[in-house]
């Protein structure tokens, strides 16, 4: 099956490893990701907080372009997924706003007819491809690897039916099927602080410290996530957290597709693992190739 692919700004820069590993995983599973032509920033949450109609037009432009291909959109970034999903939901349920948005889109030769669904790659892999199918195609076992699955506060909220909003299990079930051990991680949907790391750093550092310590105390070798902002907050600020709180935390924080991709046979470079600030040796995952 083919999907329209919306990488968003983060996957073009700081989260390039996410982009590389998503593409690798879907290719290995026989599904093509077709990048949306001339896509633009989803607008993130800042536009939504400033001017609703403008933010909807910015986001809906991507939906209208994707609609021409007749394919659902896959958006790996949690913020992009949330904004595109929210825009689609609002336009489907508010005729007045929909007409205002289409009035603006017509000025650039576009119009959105509500024929696109916004999907997250985790949900597509679990529900469309299937965990059993993915496990059957694995080349390596994740046996011996203890993982804390961190979903963050966006992709399961508000109520979308994507997974349980308090105790999501999609990543947990996928990792278990690939041989990993899922550690107890009750903070899997707690917020990392998002942009508080740059606006109110003391608050942001404290929130991230709690998440990292929870994973460490429960024996996790690595944390995996679905969100570029969560990933960079949890990984890039570990030195500052250690300095401020006199802790000793050093734990790799990867994208879930990097781990799935490794199980499917990807090399560290194919999956962007060399881009990690805290090195992770994939040979810790498996001692032998699966036959």
Question: Would you kindly provide a brief summary of this structure?
Answer:
47% of the residues lie in helices and 9% in strands. With 291 residues, it is α/β, with parallel strands linked by helices.
Which tags fit this structure?
single chain, 291 residues, alpha/beta, Glutathione S-transferase Yfyf (Class Pi), Chain A, domain 2, Rossmann fold, 2 domains, four-stranded parallel β-sheet, 13 helices, 8 strands, 47% helix, globular, disordered C terminus
Give a description of the structure.
With 291 residues, this protein is α/β, with parallel strands linked by helices. The protein folds into 2 domains: 2-119, Glutathione S-transferase Yfyf (Class Pi), Chain A, domain 2 (Up-down Bundle); 131-284, Rossmann fold, CATH 3.40.50. 47% of the residues lie in helices and 9% in strands. It is built from 13 helices and 8 strands. It has a 4-stranded parallel beta sheet with strand order 2-1-3-4. Strands 6-5-7-8 form a 4-stranded parallel beta sheet, sandwiched between helices. α4 (52-67) packs across α6 (95-106). The longest helix is centred in the last third of the chain and has 17 residues, at 201-217. The protein is globular and about 55 Å long. The two termini are 27 Å apart. The relative contact order is 0.15.
Secondary structure topology:
Blueprint: E1 2-5, H1 8-11, H2 16-28, E2 32-35, H3 44-50, H4 52-67, E3 73-74, H5 78-93, H6 95-106, E4 118-119, H7 121-136, E5 146-150, H8 170-177, E6 181-182, H9 196-199, H10 201-217, E7 222-225, H11 228-236, H12 238-245, E8 253-255, H13 256-263
Parallel strand pairs: 1-2, 1-3, 3-4, 5-6, 5-7, 7-8
Helix pairs in contact: 2-13, 3-4, 4-5, 4-6, 5-6, 7-8, 10-12
